[in-house]
Amino acid sequence: MKTFNLPDLGEGLPDAEIVEWHVKEGDFIKLDAPLVSMETAKAVVEVPSPYTGTVVKLFGGPGDVIATGSPLAGFELAEGAAQRAEAEDTGHHHGGGAAEHHAPVPVKAEADAAAKPAGAAQSADAGTVVGAMESSDRVHREAAATIGGVKAVPAVRALARKLGVDIARVRPSGADGVVTVADVKAAAADGSAAIGAAGAAPATPAAAATAAPAPAPAATADGTRTRTSVSAAGKPVRTSPPSEQPAMGQPEPLRGVRRNMARIMAEAHAQVVPTTLCDDADVHAWSGKPDVTARLIRAIVAACREVPALNAWFDGAAGTRTLHPHVDVGIAVDTPEGLFVPALRNADLLAPAQIREAVNRLRSQVEDRSIPPEELKGYTISLSNFGVFAGRYATPVVVPPCVAIIAAGKARHEMRPVVGGFEAHKVMPISLTFDHRACTGGEAARFLKALLDDLQRAD
Fold first, then answer.
1. What are the Low complexity biased-composition ranges (predicted)?
2. What does the alpha-carbon distance between residue 360 and residue 367 come to, in Å, rounded to a whole number?
3. At residue 120, what are phi and psi to the nearest 5 degrees?
4. Integer Cα distance of 312 and 134 in angstroms
């Protein structure tokens, strides 16, 4: 038996989760035919077969996590058939590349085509999420494959599994009968294709007559126990320490983006010496309905020009600092799967309308998991606009090699003294966390002042 070990699917990622096998034991498969869909921290990747032959053994099922370099599948090779050479790359193992000065983000980017910068140097860190994600230079293409009579790309199948949707019962709207992300989300919203729902049969009168007695008042109609302050006899419930109480929830393993987020967050916490400065930007002079994100990015660019020390990368092991002449802003995007940070390239060259267009495109690609890998790496400074939800100040995490992250809190009105009395002004809380190994407190304070000065301009 020839064993195929899981290759590196994401530039140093330690493992990947099996989403769906495209074969079963005993099947014959040809070289480069789809073998299995694996979910990494950033995407669902279709792994091709490295051999032509019979599948003898599958080392795991859907939902299992396989460590990089561990056995994935076993083959009985077909004599005389084309096989991949021992040292030949499967197309999924790759080295890291340092980010270079990119052209402005195009309005429309293809998720299945990208070029690696020529002569890119090796980089030891490709962190791309505020505490969460790594990436690679590999060009990744997801093709719709027909499995079980359903035509869909691996990412859509993974989304259906996460949302509890039976993809075989989803009405496709894509070209050639392809099930899309929107189709799965719609089915999840209206409950028309819930897993297991189709097989549920209504109870007959005879079954109802022989059914178990109704649950006690301390339980819901489906038998799930509820928490009450009195017992079934109407007496106060005796409490016990948490260690003696049964767990109410069901532990679940972290997978994909969240698993990698936990790992990268811990590594960042162990490496960086973070310090946070906070202040308020008085945006009373703003008029109309300004694009807050575009204004924040413009202010970051202005501050980077004033104090380049925070638009930099720091290599703690080598003791070196790299100052960047361009500004690539990593914008934190929150999703149910975890936190992504796509890079807004050359923010210092973009007009406000171009910034909004690029941000919308990046957010859309993150939400449907179609964002190209090169868009998830190499930012020079990052932004978290958590104030769209709640919160005033924060201590956001700096992920190496970057040395700074800006966080914008929820704007509020407060009374400010003016000539002749007081006025209610709108203010926006701003937090700046920086790596004190690479930046001085004075540099950070001057950076924050430059950022506030730009935010407080009327135009």
1. 214-223
2. 11
3. -65, 135
4. 18
Q: How far apart are CA 98 and CA 378, in angstroms?
A: 7
Question: Which token pair is 149?
Answer: 């009579």
Question: Which of 435, 434, 433, 414 is closest to 425 using CA atoms?
Answer: 414
> Which residues have CB under 8 Å from 392's CB, separation 6+?
409, 410, 412, 429
pLDDT of residue 258: 81
β-bridge mates for residue 5, sequence order: 71
- DSSP E strand stretches across 261-367: 274-282, 312-315, 320-323, 329-331, 333-335, 338-340, 343-344
Q: What is the DSSP letter of 178?
A: B
The residues near 252 (Cβ < 8 Å, ≥ 6 apart) are none
pLDDT tens sequence across 41-55: 667 788 999 999 999
Give the closest residue to 389 by CA, choosing from 362, 409, 412, 364. 409
One-letter identity of residue 99? A
Q: How many CA atoms lie within 13 A of 361 on its CB side?
A: 18
- Residue pair 348/302 in contact (Cβ under 8 Å)? The answer is no
Q: Which domains does the chain have, with CATH numbers?
A: 2-86+127-190 (2.40.50.100), 264-455 (3.30.559.10)
**Burial annotation 66-91 (CB, 10 A radius, 16+ → b, else e):** bebeeebbbbeebeeeebbeeeeebb
Q: Yes or no: say if 376 and 345 are a contact pair by the CB < 8 Å rule.
A: no
Q: How far apart are CA 446 and CA 72, in angstroms?
A: 53
For residue 77, the surrounding DSSP H or E stretch is strand 71-77
Parallel, antiparallel or unpaired: strands 34-39 and 44-48: antiparallel
pTM assigned to the model:
0.58
Q: Check: CB of residue 349 under 8 Å from CB of residue 142.
A: no
Question: Measured at the alpha carbon of residue 448, what is the angle toward residues 426 and 125, in degrees to the nearest 5?
Answer: 120
Question: Which sign does the torsion angle of CA 338, 365, 158, 161 carry?
Answer: positive
Tens digit of pLDDT for each residue in 405-428? 999 999 999 999 889 889 999 999
Run of H or E residues at 374 = none
A 10 A CB-CB count for 64 gives 11
Please tell me whether residue 430 adopts helix, strand or coil conformation.
strand
